[in-house]
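Narrative of accomplishments. A recurring question from our advisory board has been how the design workflow behaves on a single, concrete structure rather than in aggregate. To address it, we present the structure tokens for one chain from the evaluation set, followed by the sequence designed for it. No filtering or post-editing was applied between the two.
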């Protein structure tokens, strides 16, 4: 066994006390002598010739907290860890680059992934064994964590050569898998059809969504279905998207009182969620509901979108300074399992009048026996019956039922506010904020009014804060605001490039466009694979990552949209504005880099297929001219805003506010011949502009016809 130097170096978790990460800070009291990820930990492991115990988790992760309490707060287990290992704790939100590589490795070893991720590494960082949650004691035929720790320590001491061979083989396997060796080929737009067919094949016709339990949202797949419906008018595409969105919004996976979606449902009916709420889920689902409202005009989708925005404004954002927070925890204590969000029958009745309670029980399906296993009296609120059905059942008017439900919802929300509130991670991550900036700017145009104006103002406030605090001319974007500089990822730059283009389109402020190009240049300079095409997730000048320093190229949506797909979207939109052939060439080369592999990913290649749609079709750009307060111009702008087409750009030009640069070549050639004070709309795609129109209905028709059939129909 290695020499026991645990007493010499033990600091408990005190090294984490001043960490930027709330997940790491939450472990500062533990008796485990944790290190943050970095050279200090690797140097200590090499010096003492000890294996590394890697724990990857997140502040929102329920089972991470369970393992913390059961094992890492246990003095006897901590003593084992400190004696035989160098323990390293990682926040997966703060270090997605570390998480993704070790997830791949541990999945190859154990056949499973997720959080907490528990890995055992050589002193130089190469994994040789791992898993996810380990119980504190032997149970149900599974070895407990102490037995695992002892066995790994013994193997490291006595079977070192065997472990080194396993680590080397595993590292090679991760390199091959993550670099997509052999995936390059000729890009073929038929991949769009393959993705849609694979998605349709696993559609749950009864409950909506894709696959069986547990059920996760797949916003990129829904957007793909909606865009192809706009092109083909194939009713089944719309049916799948609508049924999925309606059933999710009516289920317990949606917070029926405050708005916002929980991370996923443990059942196929969308009833019982894992209760954490993630920034990236809610930004992308908000896009879905806005787009569904644009496509169908159904108020239900608008109401869900407005409910989500209300929750974000109240809970998941810094309204004073700008910025969207990372997540809200599922629980408020380790003994809790969604208790903040769930209700016993007695709790509901105590908060409401008897008349309100009677209606709320029918609407939300609240009974003496609920859905929660840890407390069978607890009910998840979901929409079991609508107002019309309840009205018919109880013999009252639908209007009165709606009034009672609205009153009950307000009172239940107020009563819930008195409970201990699950923690909000107030970290502001660059890429996730960019995703929300984009969708809030879209909401501003779709929803209009006070809600729209507030979305626009807050999105721009957030963007300005990111540009001021997260950009460095030499290093590009940081991964998050605050703390020590944390290098940005491909996602941070790609999502920011898109959001900056959205900000430019909303304001015609050329500074936003210039910043979008800087983000793209950074991507091309530091992330581009000059050998195989496509983009790596880490910059070439990023610090080394220890023994698993794999140059990884992300393709699949997991769970955020693929960084390479988003990079293609940004480059194609930039090409549409500038005519710079480098953007188009690199977009095409990125699609080709994954051409052989993409069709095998099915549902998880939805973002790649959306990028393929945009690349094949070309960016659709709409310019509306006319005086600022001209009702005819406003009607044209409204028609363009109401019509969903993926990747569509909308510029509102007035005599006082005209872009002098950064227009698509076709637009740049045509716009000088149009009077800026006359209400008219111009639609361009690629190198072609259609004749101007001045009728809103004609504009909508033109937008729907542009590029129709460009992508193969399913």
């Amino acid at each position: 066994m290695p020499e026991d130097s645990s007493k010499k170096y033990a600091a408990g978790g005190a090294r984490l006390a001043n960490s930027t990460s709330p997940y790491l800070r939450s472990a500062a009291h533990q008796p485990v002598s944790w290190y943050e990820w970095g050279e200090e930990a690797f140097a200590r492991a090499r010096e003492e010739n000890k294996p590394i115990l890697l724990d990857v988790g997140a502040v929102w992760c329920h089972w991470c907290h369970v393992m913390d309490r059961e094992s890492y707060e246990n003095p006897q287990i901590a003593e084992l860890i400190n004696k035989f290992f160098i323990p390293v704790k990682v926040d997966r939100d703060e270090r997605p680059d570390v998480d993704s590589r070790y997830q791949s490795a541990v999945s190859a070893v154990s056949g499973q992934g997720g959080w907490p991720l528990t890995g055992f590494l050589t002193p130089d960082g190469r994994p040789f064994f791992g898993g996810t949650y380990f119980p504190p004691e032997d149970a149900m035929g599974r070895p407990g964590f102490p037995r695992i720790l002892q066995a790994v320590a013994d193997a490291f001491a006595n079977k070192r050569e065997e472990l080194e061979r396993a680590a080397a083989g595993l590292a090679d396997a991760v390199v091959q898998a993550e670099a997509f060796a052999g995936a390059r080929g000729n890009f073929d737009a038929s991949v769009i059809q393959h993705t849609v067919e694979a998605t349709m094949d696993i559609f749950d016709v009864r409950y909506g969504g894709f696959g069986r339990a547990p059920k996760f949202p797949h916003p990129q797949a829904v957007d793909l279905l909606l865009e192809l419906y706009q092109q083909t008018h194939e009713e089944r595409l719309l049916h799948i998207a609508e049924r999925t969105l309606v059933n999710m919004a009516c289920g317990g996976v949606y917070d029926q009182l405050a708005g916002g979606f929980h991370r996923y449902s443990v059942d196929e009916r969308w009833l019982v969620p894992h209760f954490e709420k993630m920034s990236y889920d809610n930004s992308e689902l908000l896009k879905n509901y806005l787009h569904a409202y644009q496509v169908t005009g159904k108020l239900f989708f608008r109401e869900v979108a407005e409910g989500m925005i209300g929750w974000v404004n109240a809970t998941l954002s810094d309204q004073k300074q700008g910025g969207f927070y990372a997540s809200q925890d599922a629980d408020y204590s380790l003994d809790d399992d969604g208790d903040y969000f769930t209700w016993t029958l007695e709790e509901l009745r105590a908060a409401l009048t008897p008349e309100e309670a009677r209606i709320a029980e029918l609407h939300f399906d609240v009974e003496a026996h609920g859905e929660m296993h840890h407390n069978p009296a607890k009910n998840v609120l979901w929409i079991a019956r609508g107002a019309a059905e309840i009205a018919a059942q109880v013999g009252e008017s639908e209007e009165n039922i709606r009034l009672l439900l609205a009153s009950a919802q307000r009172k239940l929300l107020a009563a819930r506010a008195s409970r201990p509130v699950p923690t909000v991670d107030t970290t502001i991550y660059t890429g996730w904020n960019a995703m929300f900036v984009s969708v809030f700017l879209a909401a501003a145009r779709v929803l209009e009014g006070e809600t729209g104006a507030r979305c626009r103002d807050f999105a721009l406030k957030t963007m300005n804060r990111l540009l001021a605090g997260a950009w460095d001319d030499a290093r590009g974007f940081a991964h998050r605001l605050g703390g020590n500089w944390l290098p940005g990822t491909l996602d941070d730059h790609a999502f920011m490039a898109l959001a900056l283009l959205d900000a430019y389109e909303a304001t015609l402020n050329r500074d936003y466009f210039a910043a979008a190009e800087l983000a793209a240049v950074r991507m091309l300079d530091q992330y581009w694979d000059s050998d195989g095409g496509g983009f790596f997730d880490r910059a070439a000048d990023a610090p080394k990552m220890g023994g698993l320093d794999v140059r990884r190229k992300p393709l699949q949506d997991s769970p955020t949209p693929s960084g390479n797909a988003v990079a293609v979207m940004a480059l194609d939109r930039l090409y549409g504005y500038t005519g710079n052939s480098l953007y188009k060439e690199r977009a095409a080369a990125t699609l080709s880099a994954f051409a052989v592999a993409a069709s095998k990913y099915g549902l998880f290649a939805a973002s790649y297929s959306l990028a393929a749609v945009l690349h094949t079709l070309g960016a659709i750009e709409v310019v509306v001219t006319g005086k600022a307060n001209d009702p005819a111009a406003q009607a044209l702008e409204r028609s363009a805003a109401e019509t969903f087409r993926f990747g569509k750009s909308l510029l509102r030009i007035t005599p006082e506010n005209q872009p002098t640069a950064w227009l698509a070549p076709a637009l740049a050639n045509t716009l000088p011949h149009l009077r800026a004070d006359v209400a008219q709309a111009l639609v361009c795609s690629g190198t072609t502009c259609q004749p101007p129109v001045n009728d809103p209905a004609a504009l909508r028709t033109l937008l729907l016809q542009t590029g129709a059939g460009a992508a193969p129909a399913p």
